[in-house]
Amino acid sequence: MSEQFKCRINLLYNDLQSEIWCNKGSILINVLNQNNIYLDAPCGGKCLCGKCKVKVIGDCTSVPTDGELKFLTDKERKEGYRLACAMKVVDDIEVMVESNNSAQIMSEGIGNVVEISPIVRKKFVQLEKPTKHDQKDDLQRLLDTLGMQYYRIPLQILRELPDLIRDHNYEITVVYSDREIISVEGGDTSNTHYGIAVDIGTTTVVAYLVDITSGREIDVVSQLNAQKSFGSDVISRITYTLENMDGLKQLQQKIISQINHMINSLVEKNKLNIETIHHIVLVGNTTMLHLLTGITPKNIATSPFIPVSTQELVCRAEDLGLNINSKCAAYLLCSISGYVGADIVAAILASGMAEKHELSLLIDIGTNGEIALGNKDQIICCSTAAGPAFEGAHIRNGVGGIAGAINTVRLEGDQVKYTTILDHKPIGICGSGIIDILSILVEIGIVDETGRIVDEDEVKSEIGKKLTKNVIEIEGMPAFVIAKETETKNKEAIVITQKDIREVQLAKAAIAGGINTLIKSMGKKIEDISHVYLAGGFGSYIDKQSAVNIGLLPKVLKDNIIVLGNAAGTGAVMSLLSQKCYHHCTNIKNKAKYIELSTSQEFQDEYINCMYF
Amino acid sequence: MSEQFKCRINLLYNDLQSEIWCNKGSILINVLNQNNIYLDAPCGGKCLCGKCKVKVIGDCTSVPTDGELKFLTDKERKEGYRLACAMKVVDDIEVMVESNNSAQIMSEGIGNVVEISPIVRKKFVQLEKPTKHDQKDDLQRLLDTLGMQYYRIPLQILRELPDLIRDHNYEITVVYSDREIISVEGGDTSNTHYGIAVDIGTTTVVAYLVDITSGREIDVVSQLNAQKSFGSDVISRITYTLENMDGLKQLQQKIISQINHMINSLVEKNKLNIETIHHIVLVGNTTMLHLLTGITPKNIATSPFIPVSTQELVCRAEDLGLNINSKCAAYLLCSISGYVGADIVAAILASGMAEKHELSLLIDIGTNGEIALGNKDQIICCSTAAGPAFEGAHIRNGVGGIAGAINTVRLEGDQVKYTTILDHKPIGICGSGIIDILSILVEIGIVDETGRIVDEDEVKSEIGKKLTKNVIEIEGMPAFVIAKETETKNKEAIVITQKDIREVQLAKAAIAGGINTLIKSMGKKIEDISHVYLAGGFGSYIDKQSAVNIGLLPKVLKDNIIVLGNAAGTGAVMSLLSQKCYHHCTNIKNKAKYIELSTSQEFQDEYINCMYF
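^ Those are the sequences you sent over. The predicted structure of the assembly is below.
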């Protein structure tokens, strides 16, 4: 990662862990502030009060400044303490923020710092033994001790309960939610309480193992969605369910068995007992959740794009075919529409935008770009068919975010420099690289505002004139060479062609047009927006300046852009840990209004306008 | 039935049907009043106003009096109209009460006349077709049309829903409860909505088939509990579950398969489709419900007599193993304690006592006598081990209520007369006959107040002196001959022995002692009680005067005794038809307090006192 321009901060707070990203060289306190974590710094971050102490764990190439050293004891220096207002982030680091030096932690912000009060709780209870003067039945005795009134209880648990409580001297541990007793165990097992959060993306599936007692995210595993062999995007998978007998069942079994496999590997790796997992939260786009539950998504594919259900769904993991603790409760978070799924609801939750007074914009760019605009009063959202250009598809030398992909491009003087993922020899260019190179080409005038690669004599800038040498002709159209054939793995130049630029124009116009349509629909101006949250993997890697330069994101908001990383996963974990967060998803759904862009004249106009650079 | 002294009235009111019993020769309007059905009769039942017209359907040996004829047109006479204030009930009859001539119908009284508003409803809905401007998902569209907010919905229904609504032009019929969508069917099937109510007694299982749309009880089937081969009473069945591997499972399967069989026969006989049954309500004593659900009742058998659950239980019929519509919802009504079960809750519901200001007593006499005392403010109840004497067990010539059982005994002059069930030759004596003969023997002084069959010279009354000829000696103890050997089927005299009398004394002391204990516990006097409800089969057949004479029931309440018949079944049907009734069961449970007689010194004292005649 050292050659890249992003640094990852693994943040520890009150035994909670979260991951945030920043540009290399950022001042730590600013990064924390951007992520809604505010340290107590009465001097205003001028290195004058020494209050913003944090502990950096492990290796770190940055050394304390003289200003910092004034406030650190020798012991503190050895232990890695730093002042957040003075420290520049130049590596991937792990930072511990002690709760007593944080003035305010946004409870439901990006920091994933949530009060641990999960939907599925585990509690050790000591029941009073019955006598002839206290003949309450076993269940009532349990409910009274738990302070529960309404409940559902599976027959199986009623069958186990009487012997369990008597065999364990009336001391048992109960796994329960507000309305349901999920499991009972003998003795005190309250310290082993784990949950799984899963984000099912069309491309990638991520599963998190969480210690619900401490709130600690223990481990995470990420895999390509096993359904990819049935079609790379939502529509092709829906088509598969229609064209194949049992196609829906096949896709369902594929994802279920993949999730089972991921959970097993998490559990085995961390030496846990699968029976200690009582809670699983699943998010994904609407189609993925339909496929997961074996519910046909076919009507999502054709106008008017109607899902069977966007409601939250609570069922027994067993009913879904998940081979984990058979009593484990599975919670599928709610979606908003056929094309704004539970992953976006979870991302909105993770961003905290739905609790703020200020207006925020959330963007998740993939094959579709899902966009949400709103605050605590209302949210409007849309999905725009960005196409897979930003994922490297339909681009001559486009690749996904794999080793050897050119992921950043910059100018150094009149030289085009790039980095690749894992420093491998370049094999192609991925989305963030495509945005960087386009930004450069527009800036130096090799591409004009209509997206045309101009003739040599039309180039005005000095650097541009020098770089016209990189413009070659491929298949009768101009193309700009980013990596020469001598530099690449397969000895062919990596270029961006005129056609590639058109693809990117369509994609960025779809996103930018969607943003503008939402802003106008709400009767707002772009300046009314206080934060722009980028969700999803792609958003984590693009350079904000480049994105703004090509008009993908609004220029005036450049300094307000916050990268969330896998916000859907973060939101799923938050819902696992906090019933407030879980219920908040329904609030988000309820206050969200979906705008169908395919019928919006406004969008058509914006789309055309946004095509220009 | 014509030789017996009870008549059955099949009562029709607003398409609702119920069954009430009365003594032969009773005036119809009095019978209706006793059953809380009050006709508009301004003249006070003196045959002066002609307002209390009812229609008697079918044959009836009673003919209109001259008084009646003054108020009936020829047409009305032909159609069977009668005045309830003048008509004596001398046959089993069917009576239709027109709603416009009833001043007040107790909504939850014995009459089983309840407002039809079932827990499980069926409704035809026409959904708006979705458009790009109305992209609500299928489920939300359905919920909004139904006006439902919170719900559970099985995955299977979500899987069926999208094709179902589109294949039926957005016209579907929904089976649903307040919180759950149970089933969806294409088109309008709202007129086929049936339910089953089952009363699982230790001895007898009764199943009712009910048309939930009209509230009509279509059919009923009654069988001996198939578990009887595993033990005739609750304790012996519990013992079986403890002494046999899989004993619990065997007993569960026995009752489940019996209920399946009964339902199938009801459905086939009435030419219904099993899929049209969406609702089943089950009542029974606490042990029977434990066995039904495969939950061990073993802790009910030993002190301190703790059931696993007395709560209402809602589950899918499928989960219980009931082979009917797999989506059918099964509702097990709540119990009060290990020995006061859901059958008593249902009987209390059917009696209406828990809605009345006045204090009522409810008694269900079987092997155990369950007794409840209370009104709308509080209910206290107990269970007393009456023993099976009233069911004919432990009595030398005792039999159950079968053909040939002596069921009534009376004196005609100095002759002992009896009747038998179905007029067969006598084979033994059942509970009602035992009470009759004891009442007679005490009255004429052959049995003294301590229960001893006195010596011939101690008899004071003329009739008694004449009847001492019937006292013989059997196995060294005195016995009274009821049917001579020449009269009986097996040519042996049917007698009641000194030992039999002791058994009955114990049984009646348990009941009477329980009643007195409840009254004292509540700080009331016997005179404070306004109604005595007799629930259960036995209560339907005993002669009130005899029961009072032997001290089984309190003398001062003789005229306030109301026979409910199978009140548990009636309550189950009411809960099937009315969610108000269903929820009222929980109210009854909540206001009920169980008194454990085995620890009550009060009861011990009363028990001894009540041993005397």
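Chain B has five domains: 6-105, 121-186, 195-332, 353-388+505-610, 391-498. The CA atoms of residues 133 and 392 of chain B lie 74 Å apart.

Shout if you want it in another format.
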